[in-house]
Write a structure and sequence with these properties.
- The structure is a single chain.
- By secondary structure, the protein is an alpha+beta fold.
- It has one domain.
- The chain has two helices and six strands; from the N terminus they run αββββββα.
- It has a six-stranded antiparallel beta sheet.
- The protein is globular, with a radius of gyration of 15 Å.
- The chain starts with 5 loop residues before the first helix and ends with a helix.
């Protein structure tokens, strides 16, 4: 009989929590709001964790000021000779885009909320 160790259980629990947030919109302080879009997809080299996600923070004018997503490929602007990153995970912060290393759904949610709180505090 197969059994999951604690790390596997935590990973699966975090993944299910994230998937259950699909379509949720959370009003925040000072007119900010957060939206979660999360879908299970086939595993691929671009999406090795099997979820397509977009976690976004918007200001009171409805402008996205922060986004963690994997909706498209990403190539750093300053990489002269580099190829596109194979995985599509990245962060949009205002007008800039940065790579993001997806570790787990739990870590993604923690990183997103920390970055959101930091921006809302500015």
């Amino acid at each position: 009989m197969l059994s999951l160790d604690d790390n596997q259980r935590s990973y699966m629990s975090g993944l299910e929590t994230l998937l259950n947030l699909d379509g949720e919109i959370f009003p925040m302080d000072n007119g900010y709001w957060v939206k979660f879009e999360v879908k299970r997809v086939d595993i691929s080299s671009a999406i090795p964790h099997g979820i397509r996600y977009s976690l976004t923070l918007h200001d009171k004018t409805n402008q996205r000021i922060l986004g963690f997503d994997n909706a498209h490929s990403y190539k750093p602007r300053n990489a002269k000779y580099g190829a596109k990153k194979e995985t599509w995970d990245h962060i949009h912060k205002r007008m800039d885009t940065f790579p993001y290393e997806f570790d787990s759904a739990n870590q993604l949610m923690e990183d997103f909320w920390q970055a959101s709180e930091s921006l809302m505090g500015q």
